[in-house]
Amino acid sequence: MLTCACGARFEVDNTLAGQDVLCPECQQPLKAPAQDRLPQVTSGWALASVVLALVGAFTIVGTVLAVLLGFYALRHISRNRQRVRGIGLAIFGIYLGTKFTALTILALSNSDLFGLENLMREKFTAEQVDTSGPLEVVQGAKGFAITRPSEKWGQVAGNQSDDPAVSLLQRNRDLLLMQVARYAFLDVRTLPPGNIRNLDQCQDDILTEFENRPRQANPFAEDDDDFPAAIHARLLASRQLETKDGVEGREMDVDVRSGGQPWRFTIRLYRRGNGRIYVVRAYTQKRRYNKNKSELEMALDSFRILRR
After folding, report:
1. In which element (H, E) is residue 250 found?
2. Which of 57, 103, 140, 287 is 20 to 30 Å from 47 at the Cα level?
């Protein structure tokens, strides 16, 4: 409320605070008093955005919520510029939330990038894999020997791993070796003489065996008739190996899909005369094959049939 020297009293809009106004009665200029400004406060929404982005890092839910709070803080500040500040904090919260969300999704989709998958596998398989003893593993009763590529390779207890993605492929093995960190396997199975006429027939039987693995039980339903094992095999290449010391051989490359994952197998078949057939398989996930190829081939090349 302003009072002019002429005695007139009138109200002035807040937008004219501190400016010269004319008296409506005498038209003399008067200076409107300056409006008292309230102290600015930092937006609580902006602070919450930054805190939630840091506390909820790698949780997706927390980081996404941090981004939403940051945008809400910007909107709130723009509507209350005279009383609320914190635009920089809100933008920082949005940046952190977006970055941590992207990193979390990347880590979950490619756990190898951060070594998470290897850490979990080593934790749960450490007691199952025995890496002690000499590198050469001799199975006298079965008549063969094979050398581990390094001390990081070990024999799996019971010759079958507990990994549901690959356990169906490892039944009835006479030896199973594993390199835990690289998620690579090598196994040996002996077939008695007499049932298989030649290595060509053995190759066909191996491919058929992949497709005819027993069904994986459905843990979520009593009736699992509609829950078949998702195992499919495709022969990529087959070649005859050079006969050495009377042992004929065959090598085949096979892509197998099991447990929703693609695997690459290199399989060698050995037979001396009309005796046992030895099936030696080296395999890993298809995306890891090139990284593991040298060690897998080293192990395959070390296989030998013992002389009786």
Report:
1. strand 247-258
2. 103
3-state secondary structure 31-99: ECCCCCCCCCEECHHHHHHHHHHHHCCCCCHHHHHHHHHHHHHHHHHHHCCCCEECHHHHHHHHHHHHH
Nearest CA to 161 among 136, 128, 114, 191?
Answer: 128
Among 172, 169, 152, residue whose Cα is nearest residue 299 = 152
CB 303 within 8 A of CB 144: yes
**Can you give the residue ranges of every domain in the chain?**
2-31, 44-109, 116-214+228-305
Count of helix runs (H) and strand runs (E) in the chain: 6, 17
CATH 3.40.1000.10 holds for 116-214+228-305: yes
Inform me whether the pLDDT recorded for 305 exceeds 90.
yes
Helix axes of 87-109 and 61-79: crossing angle, nearest 10 degrees: 160
Q: pTM of the predicted model, to two decimals?
A: 0.61
In whole angstroms, what is the distance from residue 188 CA to residue 52 CA? Answer: 53
- pLDDT score of 230 more than 80: no
> Which candidate, 175, 191, 186, places its Cα nearest to that of 271?
191
The CB density around residue 242, as the number of other CB atoms within 10 Å, is 7
Cα 241 from Cα 293, distance rounded (Å): 18
pLDDT band of residue 223 (cuts 50, 70, 90) is very low
CB 64 within 8 A of CB 72: no
Q: Cα separation of 213 and 226, whole Å? A: 15
**Cα end-to-end distance, the chain, whole Å:** 116
C-alpha distance from residue 82 to each of 37, 40, 48, 124, 148 (Å): 8, 7, 21, 58, 73
* Residue 2 or residue 210, greater confidence: 210
